[in-house]
Every structure is written in C-alpha cells, then in structure tokens.
Amino acid sequence: MSRYIQKIASEILQSSGSDPRLKLYAILDAARDTRIHARLIESGLEALSLFRGDKAVELADVAPYLVSLYREDILIDWLLTYGWGNSWGIIVESAAGLKELGRHFQSFVMVYDSKGIPLYFRYYDPRVFRIYMPTCNESELKTVFGPVNSFYLEAQDPEHLIHYAFADGKLVERTVPV
C-alpha cells in the first residue's frame, strides 16, 4: 500500500475507530469499473444491491452495492488503491446493520422530475455527492444522514478527503489533505 493510500485509510479508520459500535461500509458503483462487481463476487463478502426487484438482477453488473468494510480487510486496500480518484463510490460510517442501511440508501436511488418521470439519482458518485450535500437544508440532511454517522469521499482533487457529519442541524464538512 502506498503512503498516499495509507494516509487515506488511516484518516478514515482513525475517525471511525473512536466508537466501537460504528462500522464502515462502502457504496460502490459497479458502473464505474468492471472490476468492482467481479471483486465483490470473488470476495465472498455480503454485498447488497441498491437496485430492487428485477432491476437488481437485470443491472447487476452496473448496480451500486453496499458492502461492509472490515478494518483489516484487503478490500479497503483494493478500493483505495484502485478506486480513489476514480469516483467509485463513498464510504459510510454507521452503527446500523447492512440490511437497515441498505433500506435507507435504496430509498434515494430513484427520484422523480417535475413531470413525474423516474430518474436514477447517482448520489453515491463522489462528484454528485460533494455538490449535493451542501445544498441540503436541515430536514434534507436529517433524511440523508438517517442512521449514518459520517460520510467519507474523495474531493475533486483526490489528494484531499472530505468528511461529512451532521451536528446541531448543520452539515459539518472537513477537508483533509492526504
């Protein structure tokens, strides 16, 4: 693992290590790289598609997946080594279990335009997430955070990590050089 990747992992693991109830998850966008879906299958880790029903099967190769990250797991190294700077997804810190967190995130995948036409909302893309979050009001932030303690993602400049938290009704954004 390069020093650059070690610094990112250290920052995320250090922040999340303060409360033993908190677990790390990643939402990975298999549409960003063909290696993602294949790696999730070969890892044997429980991965939950954020698509539902027939779409989960039909679009399995390009779906977003919620997956548990274990602190000593090589998936973290792999994700940061190949995915950091390539908009593969976001990292989430929560005390919730995989299924509860999955239901929470599944509720945001489909949005509707002013004419009622359904659209996929790719909020798990760091390029979208870092633009969307600062626009949210307090009520929207409560909804987005739900059971989530923190979000971690690459900044536009991947030599920086963005950490989002929700405190006192406001979005708390911290950008850390890595």
In which range does the helix fraction lie?
25-40%
Stretches where pLDDT is under 50 for at least 5 consecutive residues are: none
> From the alpha-carbon coordinates, what is the Rg to the nearest angstrom?
16 Å
Terminal Cα separation, in Å?
14 Å
- The average pLDDT is 92
Indicate the structural class: alpha+beta
Tell me, what's the shape?
globular
Q: How many β strands by DSSP? A: 9
The biggest sheet amounts to:
7 strands, antiparallel
Counted up, domains total 1
Biggest sheet strand order reads: 2-3-1-4-7-8-9
Tally of contiguous helical segments: 7
Q: What is the element string, with H for helices and E for strands?
A: HEHEHEHEHEEHHEEE
Percentage of residues in DSSP E strands: 25-35%
Brief summary of the model shown:
With 178 residues, the chain is an alpha+beta fold. The chain has helices spanning 3-16, 34-43, 53-58, 74-83, 98-106, 126-132, 138-145, and strands spanning 23-29, 47-49, 64-69, 89-94, 110-112, 118-120, 148-154, 160-167, 170-177.
Please characterize this protein's 3D structure.
With 178 residues, the protein is an alpha+beta fold. It has one domain (3-177). It contains seven helices and nine strands, in the order H-E-H-E-H-E-H-E-H-E-E-H-H-E-E-E. It has helices at residues 3-16, 34-43, 53-58, 74-83, 98-106, 126-132, 138-145; strands spanning 23-29, 47-49, 64-69, 89-94, 110-112, 118-120, 148-154, 160-167, 170-177. The strands form two sheets. A seven-stranded antiparallel sheet has the order 2-3-1-4-7-8-9, with helices on both faces. A two-stranded antiparallel sheet has the order 5-6. A hairpin with a 2-residue loop joins strand 8 and strand 9. Helix 1 packs across helix 4. The radius of gyration is 16 Å and the shape is globular. 33% of the residues are buried.
